[in-house]
Structures are given as C-alpha cells and as structure tokens.
Amino acid sequence: MESKVKEMIAKLEAIAQEKDGLGLKAGDGEKPSPRSASTSLVDESCVYGRDEIKEEMEHFDLKAWVCVSTEFLLLEVTKSILAAIGCRPTKDDSLDLLQRQPKESLVNKNFLLVLDDVWDVESFGWESWDSLRTPLIGAAQGSKILVTSRDESVAKTMRAVCTHPLGELNPPHCWSLFESMHFKIETPTHALSLNP
C-alpha cells in the first residue's frame, strides 16, 4: 500500500512540474468569451421576420432596452433603465432614491422594457429581481418586461409567466437575410418586382 501512495505522489509531482514548465496557473482554463458591445438602435429595414411582433410593439408609450450581460448588478441595471427611459439618475448611489425616479416617470404609461442577455443567475437571485421590478409596478396595465437569456434557469429565477424559445426564420426570410449579407443588396428580393 505504501508503495502505491509513493507512486501516486511521484506522478502528482511530475504533473505539477509539467504544469510549471508549461506556465500554467491555477484558475486558467476556458472562460466565457466577452460579449461584444451592443445597442438597441436597429435599422428596421434589416430586421427579417417577426412582422407581427413589430406591429404589437407599436402600442407602447415607452420602449427601453438595457443590456445586462455577464453580471447582474442591481444598482447598475437600475441606472441603465433610468437612462433608457429618459430619466437623469441622481449622482447619489442610493438604490432607494434611484428607484423613485422610474416609479414616478412610468405612472400610467404603457412601457416595454427589454433586459437583454441576462445570464448570471448566481448574482441574480429572485430578491434582486423583486427589487428591480418593484418600482415598475405603477405603470399602466399591459406594460411588459421582456428578458432575453441563453440560460433557461434565468426564467425560473424570474418566475416568468411564459417563455418563448426563439424559433427559426421561415425560408423566405432566411433567403432575404442571406441575399442582403452575401450580395449586399440594398433592396431585398421580396421588395423588388421580378416582372420587366
């Protein structure tokens, strides 16, 4: 038994030396790739499919888009929401003062808030979600908060009313997208007349 333990220790020491020789450190490994910066500004002519959804969005008094991304920091997300709905956040970092602004600004307004790319469930517990949601409750009935995520557990944490896995584009919309990307066509085929 003692010889097997010595043999195992020798193997571990050899692995440790090999690790040091390669310059590897504890904690090295695969890390999620950083998300590139994104914006809510979109050239509507470049959006393919989802026409019904675009029409449904027209009835909102206010539309706001906030990229949450890797880490859900309640104070930072609240500030981003304020900026997106046109409020000037106070210089004070008091969550209470910051959350009074959207509550006052959204009274009786119908809004759509998109929280884009929420994916850190560990830092985003249901307590954070409730704290974020509370000042938005006074808005008009029919207001919506839409959350996009790569992780289904985010929907569970947020106690989503319903989830919508993003479906595929239909073939004509796929072709239009392909044409515009590959051929750099200004006007997609579906807008051109094929008759001479």
From TrEMBL:
Keywords: Plant defense. Residues 54-184 form the NB-ARC domain. It comes from the Eukaryota. InterPro entries: NB-ARC, P-loop_NTPase. SUPFAM superfamilies: P-loop containing nucleoside triphosphate hydrolases. It holds the Pfam family NB-ARC. The keyword Cytoplasm does not apply. PANTHER family: DISEASE RESISTANCE PROTEIN RGA3, PLANT BROAD-SPECTRUM MILDEW RESISTANCE PROTEIN RPW8. This is NB-ARC domain-containing protein. It comes from Vitis rotundifolia.
